[in-house]
Each structure stands twice: as C-alpha cells, then as structure tokens.
What does this fold into?
Amino acid sequence: MGAAEQALIEFEIAVETFRVEVENFSRLHHQRLGPMYARLDELDAQIAEAVAARTGDPEDIRKAREARASVLPMPNVEELFHGWMGSEGLFPESQAMLAEQSVQPPQKVRPSEETRKVYRDLVRKAHPDLARDDAERSRRDAFIARVNMAYGRGDEAALRELMREWEAGPAPAVERLSESEELYARLEWLAERKEMLAAVAAELEESAIGAMIKMAPQDPDALLDEIAEKLLADVAGRENYLAQLVG
It folds into this structure.
C-alpha cells in the first residue's frame, strides 16, 4: 500500500507542477503578448477599412465592419470583475490578497529548479493522502493549498518557511494496521484518485497552452520570447502594408 500511495503522490506532484506551468504560461502570454495581439487586431481593422474605402465594394465594407467589431468585443469575465476573477475562478493574485499574502504575479513560466525541489520535498511530507483520519486530512489539505499557492508564485523563500512550519508542527499520527475492509476501501480510493489525476493531466496536455509548452519542454520561457519576435514582425508587416494603402 505504501508504494502505491507514494507513486500516486509522485504522479500528483507531476500533474500539479505542469498545471502551474500551464497557468503561468497563460498569464504571462496574456500579459506580455496581449498588447501585440490587440495591435494586430487594430491594424487588421484599419487595413480592412482602407481597402473598403478604396473599392467601395459591399463585401469589403462588410469585412471592414466585422474587423472593427472584433476590436471592440463585449466585456469578458476578467473585465467585469476588474481583474479579480477569470473564467477559471479567482486569479492567484486575488487569492493572495484575500489570504493577506503578498501579491506577486509569476515572473517566469517555470519556477527555478531549487524551488521545484523544495516543493516536491514538501508535498511528499505533507500530502493529504498520507493522512489516516479526517482531521489530519483537513489539516494537510489546508497546508498543501498554501504550498501550491507559494509554488505558483515561484516563491522559494515562502516554501522554505512552510517547510520549517511543517517540521515544527505536530508529529503525524502513528499508522494503524488496516483491516481488510479498510484496505479494500483505500485501494478503491487510490484507483479513483489515479483516474481523476489522469483525466486532469490529459486535459492539461490537450489544452492549447499545454500543447505550446510541449513544443519547448526544456525552456517554455524562451518560447514566449520566440512568439513575441514573430508578433513584432507581423505588426511591422501590417504597418507597412497599411502605409501603402493610405499613402
């Protein structure tokens, strides 16, 4: 049983670390590249309008109106909640503010190797799956939520402080010998948990951001720089074309 539980914990660590990378990549992608995408949309609208003004063709006019409409979308969830909440719930910064923690957006997609090591060690020690009663599980659940939040920020200092807190806390309860019914229930729970984690992992890998990260598994931050360079080239190309149309 111990080996099965440990294997599940390692799998969950892998899923959570990838989830953090997907979330950080998504937020940094929006933060760094969002203005470039917005500029491209605006240029596309101006180009379509310039073409329509030249030709007077009803089809070109229709395309110009559609292009302009796409530049002024209806407010989305993020705008309606003024940066506090997105379609997936509260942003990490919002959670940090509500928990009276420092608000630090991610600086990189992937936390440092040392941060990842501290995180893995901490989860292996404090994971809720190691609990043997509901009270202990609740304590571990609350603690791991704080650990995941610190890891999502790439905050190594906070993780080390949490490690000290955990090591100074109450000693874990002595494991009881399991009866056959308890053992069966535990095995069934482990199987269900593994299935759930596999589904989460598959969803992350199949997402658009997950697929992008898999294109540069060694350095996802470099991929952001590569995309930015391409977008800058696209902006320059459209600006030149627009200048030719209106010149």
Summary: Residues 2 and 247 are 73 Å apart (CA to CA).
